[in-house]
Predict the 3D structure of the following.
Amino acid sequence: MGESPDPPVRVRLLREVLQRPAHDAELIAATEALDRSSHVRVLLDEQRDDGSWGRFHTKDYAAKQKIGRTEKGVQRAVELGLPRSHTVLRKVRTYLEAVLKGRVQIPDRAERHANWPTGVAMFAGAMLSTFAPESSALDETWEFWSSVVRRSFATGRHDLDAELQAHRQILGRSGKPAWMRLHSKYVVMVLGSRAERLPPDVEAAYVRWLWEDCPKGLVYVDVPLDQYPQKLRGWRLHAWLRLLELLSAFPSSRPSAEPAIKRLLSARNREGLWDFGIQPSCPRFSDNYRRKGVTAHDWTTRVTCLLSRYLAE
């Protein structure tokens, strides 16, 4: 891609696809240029002193800002290629760890059920896991969901009764609502961040269940996996790619992913790039979409970074 791609595109390709080391001069230069990106400037300008972007999980429509919730801020920081040492991620890490340790309450209105504190830990843990999975603040949340998944797949197949019983035995209450189940996006994020610590047979059974027995996708990412990306638009295309990104964290995903990877490879254009055009609800990495070839830069970056996770030796 020789047409001077914007810093986020350059950083992600150098780091994730070409796997340049941290001391590589080209990667260092691209990383230093990240703050020139208008998308990064928005993150910096709208981040609050406590490290958050206001509400955590639910969007505040009254707030006149582009980053309407902290989850979105973390997601944008990671997908734009910000290094862990960047001030944006350092500040939000402190905030997330404080939430997980119970020192800070998120500003969202609490839902009226006993599992809300567990849900908050799930949300915060999932966000922290995207860039600091080794944080000790994540330990309790990961151990809880690790215990639930081990009990739920003790027989080699998913047992919903065992999953709900695990909640009752560990927490003293049921596993309701449904967004706190093992096929929730947030639970998959938490478990995937330390997937190598799961017993291999449990990890394999869990991944097989996610791929084969969740026909509607995951909770919060409700798009079936057996889709052709060329036929998807807007948030559905983003959600389908997001599913593949989430599941790539698990070692056992590679065989199950082969059909989806083949469909994705077939979506290349004549230049061998991916370009799904301007799509609403899909993340942008480059600043100026009026410039020729920019959409191909962004889509090819996202897809090649994804493929590198599945196809790496």
